[in-house]
Amino acid sequence: MRPAFRGRGAPAVRDSGAVRVCCAVLAGVLAAGCGPLSPTHRDPGNSHEVATGAPIGRADAEITIAGGRVRPPPGWLEVAKGRQVSITVTSDVADELHVHGYDLVAELRPGVPVTVRFTADLTGVFQVETHGGKLVLTQLAVR
After folding, report:
1. pTM of the model
2. Nearest 5°: phi and psi at 115?
3. Cis peptide before 3 (omega within 30 of 0)
4. Residue 59: its pLDDT value, please?
5. Ranges of the chain with pLDDT below 70
6. Distance between CA 135 and CA 108 in Å, rounded?
7. Residue 90 and residue 92: Cα distance in Å, rounded?
8. If you compute the radius of gyration of the chain from its CA atoms, what whole number of angstroms results?
9. What backbone phi and psi angles, to 5 degrees, belong to 142?
10. Cβ(45)–Cβ(52) under 8 Å?
11. Are 44 and 53 in contact (CB under 8 A)?
12. Sequence-ordered list of residues with C-beta below 8 angstroms from that of 1, at least 6 positions apart, any chain
C-alpha cells in the first residue's frame, strides 16, 4: 500500500548566490588538484623526490653526477637479502654520498669515483642520495 502524497511535487529549492559560490569554489579546488606536476616529476634526480625508474635487477650501479643531473636517471637497484651491493658514484662537485637505512657515508671528491660495498642484510626500500646537492641517486629495494 502506497502512502498518500499531498502537494504538487518536491518542495521548491531557492536559487541563492551562496549555492553558486559553493559550486564555483568546489570546481576551483578540483581543478587545482589537477594542476601541472612539479619540476621534480619531469626532471628526476634533482631533489629528494622518489625515484621513478623501473627495477634493474642488478646488485651494482655506476652513477655519474654532472651539472646537478644524475645519470642514469634515478631508478631502482633491486637485490635479494644477503647479496653484495656495489654502488660507484662519480661527481663533478664535492659532496657526501649516503645510503639510508644502512647509514653508509662516503666523501665525494670532484672527478674521483667512490665505491661503497656492503651486504644487503636489511629488507625494505632505502634511498641512496647526496647530502649537499640533495640528489636522489637510486633506491635500493632489498627483498
Report:
1. 0.60
2. -120, 130
3. no
4. 80
5. 1-58
6. 13
7. 7
8. 26
9. -110, 125
10. no
11. yes
12. none
